[in-house]
Fold inositol-1,4-bisphosphate 1-phosphatase.
Amino acid sequence: MRAWLFIFSLSIGEKIIVRVCATEKETAKLLQRVLDNNEAASKALARAVHEDVQLSDPALDAVHINIPHDNIAMWVDPIDSTYQYIKGSSDITPNNGIFIKGLQCVTVLIGAYLIDTGLPIMGVINQPFATRDPKTLRWKGEHYWGLSYMDTNICSLQISSKVNNLDNPSSGPPPCIENRNNLYSAVTSSAEAKNILGTLSSLCEENLYFAAGAGYKCLCVVQGLVDFYVFSEDTTFKWDCCAPHAILRSLGGGILDLSKCLKNARHKSEFSEKPHLLYNMEVEGSTGADRWSNKGGLIAYRSEKHLESFMDLFIKNLALQNEQH
């Protein structure tokens, strides 16, 4: 039996614990109390929860690894970019495939990490509102997964690329927007600090993009729409990054602690160490959700080669920005 449970506080002061019961009928009865006696919606949700879903992927079925279950923990974000989900905008025009806002920025993030090391090993990103049929107005979702454990690295993008190439030799995953006029490409938040924005603008120029949702910005890197996602603030969390981090690791990339990268650079002539985000450690001195924030900011990347050259330039340009201000 599934062990999930949720606690709801009703306007009348009553608290209801909704859990997956032994039968679909019992679960629907509990949901009906939360959903203002909406019987149809309660039955539909209960039916979906109790559905016996059989998942199989030939590529994963062929992988045989042994990961001790007692050394695995998970971070789950059921709705990343909640504001965009509530607002429900569906008419946003993308810029080079990147949406600044809208339902396309909504993601569901499921990541697993090793308890002893804190490193991510498996991740799934579900983008439920990836594309919309202009005639039926129905949405079609996309999902991406990656596994990175010891010597095993496999990703759904690699599999789909191989399948596509069998049918169409010219097809393949979207390439990174690499070094147009010797420029890099990056995505960030409009709330980023001015000195970081100035640095990114100088390195990327017209290839600097803005988008909602930490999960979606990471997905832009996973998809190869940009080279990097850079964010210096502490307003992203472990559940935002664990899933995409695992996928990026399976592709040869990762997500690093930006502040540690900058600190290391101050003691060395060039960028060398790669302090990956870890998912088993709380932020000392913090309380509540802030205990699990990415306190030092982050930089997500797909290419080790591009990361090192980019960070060398980023550090030098950031120093110039700080001098000017």
In short: Residues 304-324 form the longest helix (21 residues). Confidence is low (pLDDT under 50) at residues 165-180.
